[in-house]
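Comment thread on ticket #2218

A.B. wrote:
> Attaching the input chain for the structure job we discussed in standup.
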Amino acid sequence: MRMILVASSKGGAGKTTVATNLAAHFAVDGKATAILDADPQKSSTHWCQKRAAMDTAVLPIDGSKRGWDKHVPDGVQRLVVDARAGAMADDLLAFLDRADAVIVPVLPSAIDLEATVPFLNSLVAHPRVKKGKLPVGIVANRLKPWTTNSEQAITQLKGWPYPLVAQLRDTQAYVLMAALGKSVFDYHSEQIRSHQDDWAPLLRWLKKSL
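C.D. wrote:
> Ran it. Output below, let me know if you need it in another format.
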């Protein structure tokens, strides 16, 4: 089993969007996939429930309590962790000790960028991150590529010590698909394929990391 932790100390950064779409990608790719939902809002769990009747269903697992690992069934090939909003590295030790990769979504605003720095600093103190054994990737989320704000954010993110592994554009498509328990990987229209292209660098990075 491979575990991907999606975490951010800043609420509203798009953790659940990244976690659910990533889980859907693995499921569509034929992997037995589960989401470990450690966020009290349980948005990932609700998404899984809406998807339950699909051939590419994703199993929801409660990750908010100790002993969650006992509830992960044998045969799960990909486990995506939707971490609790506001958590720092010390709050995520049980996941950091086992994860194969960490994804940190960040919004392109000065407030979000500044709020993410302490979280990244807390991550680097973890022995596996410090030794380079646990890769950490940054996902710039809800970008408006035509704006100066997004362009400046990308420039700043590229200067951070962790790689910028994806640039996801701002679109209502994610909101509409989440309401149906779906993802960008469940559709094949030309418009949706352009959104899938946004994920390609992240998927390549994960393939190398896993």
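A.B. wrote:
> Thanks. Noting for the ticket: The helical segments are 15-28, 43-51, 93-96, 110-124, 127-130, 148-157, 173-179, 190-209.
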